[in-house]
Description:
Blueprint: E1 5-7, H1 8-15, H2 19-28, E2 34-36, E3 41-45, H3 46-74
Antiparallel strand pairs: 1-3, 2-3
Helix pairs in contact: 1-2
Amino acid sequence: MRTRFVPLSDVAEMLSISASQAYALVRSGDLRAIKVGGRGQWRVEISEIESYIDRSYEATASILAEEREREKERS
């Protein structure tokens, strides 16, 4: 059976960031997550991690394109 949801510790490992950085992504709304169980533990769906990565690639490409455009204007 394929795992659908993972804890923030796994998210941190997958993205090579700290657990507090993973929590900050959830708190900011950049990474959608749910709270489950009586203790309200955070879980992130694998597809949400993939979506976050895709959005990050797009944002990075946009930033780089803007930087290239500014470089052209300076030349």
